[in-house]
Design goal:
By secondary structure, the protein is an alpha/beta fold. Helix content is about 35%, strand content about 30%. The protein has two domains: about 120 residues, 3-Layer(aba) Sandwich (Rossmann fold); about 60 residues, no CATH class. The radius of gyration is 17 Å and the shape is globular. Keywords: ATP-binding, Nucleotide-binding, Transport.
Length: about 220
């Protein structure tokens, strides 16, 4: 279970305030896979980062029962001076898993091969994404935070990612951000629509898509 209580967050740029969460109260049930919908800039990725704990809300609180992943698809938190393997071992220690097992899993899934021995600062964006996704699939979480995983790598690797994610979601929940409606329909059962800092929950994913399309047409 993930529960937001009166969560607020805004950003200021060029003298303009953008509100992405306005006293937001929302609950994501345990084991549910939920599509997070909203126009560009509505705050979808920001909300994932606040749930993950990598970004603090301006006010309010977030309660989490169980384990929650970092935003899968977001690969900006690796230490650039460490190699891929060293980053993986560091994460293994943080989450209390066997580092050798996790390194083997990441090496096999990512396809990075010998590049795992190189500092991450020299990785391309695609290589970072491969490392990040493979690492997240190597650890079992109760809830996965998914941010544009369909943008990872080539078509073959994206297919492998979706298959691995589907396998994980047999025993876990997820909060999912994606521009691919097909992907969302394959992995989610319900939806949340974000608009002007507010959120609306829909048990029916089709209804959530319908409301989202109407908002985009305004």
């Amino acid at each position: 279970m993930i529960r937001l209580h009166e969560v607020s967050k805004s950003f200021h740029s060029g003298g303009v305030e953008t509100v992405v969460a306005d006293r937001l109260s929302l609950a994501f049930p345990a084991g549910a896979s939920v599509a997070l919908l909203g126009r560009n800039g509505a705050g979808k990725s920001t909300l994932l980062r606040m749930i993950a704990g990598t970004l603090k809300p301006a006010s309010g609180r977030i309660e989490i029962a169980g384990t929650v992943s970092w935003p899968v698809g977001f690969a900006g938190s690796f230490h650039g001076d460490l190699t891929g393997v060293q980053n993986v071992r560091f994460v293994a220690r943080l989450y209390g898993v066997d580092s050798d097992v996790l390194v083997d899993a990441v090496r096999g899934f990512s396809g990075l091969g010998e590049k795992l021995a190189l500092p991450v600062r020299g990785y391309s964006q695609g290589m970072r994404a491969r490392l990040g996704f493979a690492l997240s699939m190597g650890i079992a979480f109760d809830t996965y935070l998914i941010d544009e995983v369909t943008a990872v790598g080539d078509a073959e690797f994206r297919t492998r990612c979706e298959e691995a994610l589907a396998d994980r979601l047999r025993h876990a929940g997820a909060v999912v951000v994606s521009h691919s409606a097909g992907f969302l329909r394959r992995v989610c059962q319900s939806g949340v629509v974000l608009e002007e800092g507010r959120a609306a929950w829909f048990d029916d994913l089709d209804e959530a898509f319908s409301v989202h399309r109407r908002m985009l047409g305004q």
